[in-house]
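This part of the workshop introduces the protein records we will be handling. As an example, a complete record with its sequence and its structure tokens follows.
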Amino acid sequence: MKITSAEFVMSNSDVTKCPNQALPEYAFIGRSNVGKSSLINMLMQRKGLAKTSGRPGKTQLINHFLINKNWHLVDLPGYGYARVSKKSKKTFQKFITAYFESRKQLVLGFVLIDIRHEAQPIDLEFMTYLGHEQIPFNIVFTKADKLKPNALLRNVAQFEAKMLETWEVMPTYFVTSSSQYTGREELLKCIEDVNSEMQRV
């Protein structure tokens, strides 16, 4: 997929005020500091599209971007950031779950995982939630450039083994590096294929 346009549309915390066009949406979510904004900017080849910050938890709203005039990329708040208040966490959790459970335009979620670390309970719990709600999702391993090839393969294998303790099959996954553009073409092709499939229905 060639990205010809990427435009910020809106930010809000009320799912009912999200764009009402019947365009497919792809939601990106993960623990804070997983490299979500960097990944989005890499995919779109736009450095300042999603705001990156040295302070985890910067994204605190549902952010919609219109891509190629025919689909929305949705940047959701990170979960599991200890330094935000309990009240803020509850607020984020409320509109994140409202988005996933009520947004009819959502066709696929991308759960971002920092591949440098072993499987974290909060990530596993969130994916279990998506499974229970029958929300389709893929896994995006980030920061692959921070590991040597053998360590990368080992960590992916360990994560898959952990997933298969409770899942029948490992969800589709992508290995990415925002700094090296690793995984960009594969991820965009996934979105392109889903869009094409929807158009045929």
User: Anything to note?
Assistant: The two ends are 20 Å apart (CA to CA). Strands lie at 6-12, 25-30, 62-67, 71-75, 106-114, 137-142, 173-175. The CA atoms of residues 15 and 99 lie 6 Å apart. Helices lie at 36-44, 86-102, 121-132, 149-163, 184-200.
